């Protein structure tokens, strides 16, 4: 192979090699991730059903919130792990709820032990009426900086889609 042909082959093969496919969900998706991502399973998007989320090393945090009474237990997947599974390459996300309420969350939030995409509250699935089925919850009690209007505004419930932005 000539050096020029090799260079062209590598140039055009590199993006394809970087993109990875995720397994397809077996049930109705709860979350769609799109935008600046490199791993997909539905066209240009990464979709996740409950079983996929449950298989992603769930964590449980215990914290009080301004929307609930007393300490609550939230089980879900760290936001960073979901974005890593989608090979997110951007600097922020736009998280949107089923009613089209949207918030921006910077990369710095998901790169540390911060928000969890919760699918259980006190061991029970959350209905749409009870802020579910997915709710971005921060460990508010763990750091004073999480007890701010900015963080509370990023705590979107009824989450159903994320767009990764540059």
From TrEMBL:
Keywords: Signal. Residues 1-19 form the signal peptide. InterPro entries: OxRdtase_Mopterin-bd_sf. This is Oxidoreductase molybdopterin-binding domain-containing protein. It comes from Roseivivax sediminis. The lineage of its organism: Bacteria, Pseudomonadati, Pseudomonadota, Alphaproteobacteria, Rhodobacterales.
């Amino acid at each position: 192979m000539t050096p020029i042909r090799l260079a062209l082959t590598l140039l055009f093969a590199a993006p394809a090699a970087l993109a990875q496919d995720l397994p397809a969900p077996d049930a109705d998706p709860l979350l769609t991730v799109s935008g600046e991502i490199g791993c997909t399973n539905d066209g240009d998007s990464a979709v996740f059903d409950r079983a996929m989320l449950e298989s992603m090393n769930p964590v449980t945090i215990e914290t009080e919130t301004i929307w609930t009474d007393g300490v609550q237990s939230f089980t879900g997947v760290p936001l960073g792990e979901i974005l890593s599974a989608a090979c997110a390459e951007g600097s922020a996300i736009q998280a949107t709820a089923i009613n089209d309420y949207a918030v921006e969350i910077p990369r710095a939030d998901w790169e540390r032990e911060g928000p969890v995409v919760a699918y259980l509250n006190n061991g029970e699935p959350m209905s749409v009426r009870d802020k579910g089925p997915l709710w971005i919850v921060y460990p508010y009690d763990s750091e004073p900086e999480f007890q701010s209007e900015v963080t509370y505004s990023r705590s979107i419930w009824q989450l159903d889609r994320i767009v990764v932005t540059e």
